[in-house]
Write a structure and sequence with these properties.
The complex is a heterodimer of chains A (about 290) and B (about 325).
Chain A (H helix, E strand, L loop, with lengths): L1 H12 L5 H21 L3 H20 L13 H36 L3 H4 L5 H32 L4 H9 L3 H29 L4 H12 L6 H4 L3 H8 L18 H24 L9
Helix pairs in contact in A: 2-6, 3-4, 3-6, 4-6, 4-8, 6-8, 6-12, 7-8, 8-11, 8-12, 11-12
Chain B lengths: L9 E10 L2 E11 L2 E6 L6 H8 L7 E6 L2 E2 L3 H7 E4 L11 H12 L3 H14 L15 H13 L5 E5 L7 H16 L3 E6 L2 H7 L2 E6 L2 E6 L1 H6 L6 E7 L2 H9 L4 E6 L5 E6 L2 H13 L5 E6 L4 H9 L7
Parallel strand pairs in B: 3-8, 3-9, 6-7, 7-8
Antiparallel strand pairs in B: 1-2, 1-4, 4-5, 9-10, 11-13, 11-14, 12-13
Helix pairs in contact in B: 3-4, 3-5, 4-5
Classes of the chains: A mainly alpha (about 290), B alpha/beta (about 325).
Chain lengths: ~290, ~325
Amino acid sequence: MASTTNQIAAGTANQTLPWTLWWRQIRAIFRLEIEKNFLSRRSILIYLIALLPVLLLAPLALFTPPSREWREFNQYSVIYSFIYNGLILRTVVFFGCAWIFMNLFRGEIVDRSLHYYFLSAVRREVLVVGKYFSGLVTSAILFTGTTVVAMLLLYFPHFYSESARYFFDGPGLGQLFTYAGITILGCIGYGAFFLVVGLFFRNPIIPSVLLYGWEWLNFLLPPLLKKVSVIHYLNSLIPVPVSEGPFAVIADPTPAWIAVPSLVIVTLIVLVMSAYRIRHMEIRYGSD
Amino acid sequence: MTAVATDQLIIFDDVSKFYGEILGVNRVNLQIAPGITSLVGPNGAGKSTVMNLMTGLLRPTRGKISLLGIPTDQPDRLFRKVGYCTQFDSFPRGLTGREFISAFLSVHGFDRKKAMEFSEVALDRVNLLDAADRKVAAYSKGMRQRVRLAQSIAHQPAVLILDEPLNGLDPMVRSETIALFRKLAAEGLHLIISSHILHEVDMMSDRVVLLNNGYVVAEGNVHGVRDEMEEHPVQILIRCDQPSKLAAYVFAQDHVVEARLHQDQGGLFVKTRDADQFYLLLNRAVADGEINIESVAPVDDDLSAVYQYLIGSKGGSA
């Protein structure tokens, strides 16, 4: 077996960078983590968060509210945009990502099992990437599912034939994909932020609450400060813009070709910070 | 000791570790060659700190550490050659023993087939194959200890570091595990073991590192360490037919500082500053036919005595 170990080492030494080995290790970490994300006791809370919009919309599928907006089909895109912005993006995606990504490292510190990774022949940067991808896939699957189910649940029970036309012959399907894409971008951005929060703070609740407040108050911020937030870029991509109220400071939405790369670049910077942190991290469970 | 190449040694070069203002270990200088080396000391002496420093779980505040020429901040190289069985009795949730070992072999970079194959070998070595497909959470303490041991040897490292590896094992498994350690050492591995069970350490170690309050108090072969402790004369028990006569005979020697009859009157305790001289003297007494000697045994030439002299307590027992 020692010879096999040497083969791995030799295989890596022959190349400038051992991409094949790293890819294999990322997949191994991903498999371990994805199972934990979906099947551990901690995942119950994630399922509840992901189901929240569905649980709220299900009664509305049976009983149409009396207000006028609910009786006009062309208002539904605005209603959904409102639900998506306030409930799905700012609550489900935000808190869901907080729970998933903060637990990637913090959860293992609490469980006292992080050292098994640290005692494996794997670069800690590779560990960050593997864990981040597992969190990203978990959150993307769950919250994109929420986005899609919530939209279908809003439209179809009340106006079936109009909804069918809207989705298959109109702009509905495009909007659905756009909302799903925004959800995935939200998971990418918030995920990276919460990963780094889980690494830098023993008690990640305070920075999370501060970010939550910052994101919610974004509509009051001057245009320049608005850009220092995830929600500003995500809102810029929403296909049906909604009014943010009479006190909102109006700012031009950032075009998609700037918003998407900006989010991805910020995410990469945050991941590099995480990798730096994890590279210098010590295992001292007692003090954590 | 014959010269050993740097890439065969574990080297601590003036290493200190502070937790804030609290001392972990201070100015540790070690060069550990292949074989079984035990870290011995009371709780809080710094044994686990030394092991965690050795494996990069902790970073030294000062100094440098390398294992077989590899710095400890390169886990991707280090853990191809090193396995560490920590004292942390915790596991990733929801895994069976087999999954636990094979999953982390996959993280090492082994493909699935090899990972399964090596898991099997490791589980077999610690006699845990029967329970391999049960959840680790359902294991007894001894089984958890063994599965951690299996996980640390599964990738067949050249250096195996074991923090209190015999804790929680019943006597039978304990002796099997010690036999496994000996076998691994015979295969050419570096074994670094921490333990507070002194007689077991004494039985299996080629050399010891005694730690107290974060300092290395002594290191080397137990007998070598004992020989250097000139302020503590060597105690020898001689079983013979005429202990009183022997007492009178030996007491005239300068190097003998104490001679005391055994409680059963069938032997004599002697304390001497020069054991070699004393043995020559004894040989002469036997050759002259003056005394019939049944047995001669050093009483404090073991790790317990060394520990007691240097650290001031009796150490632990099983």
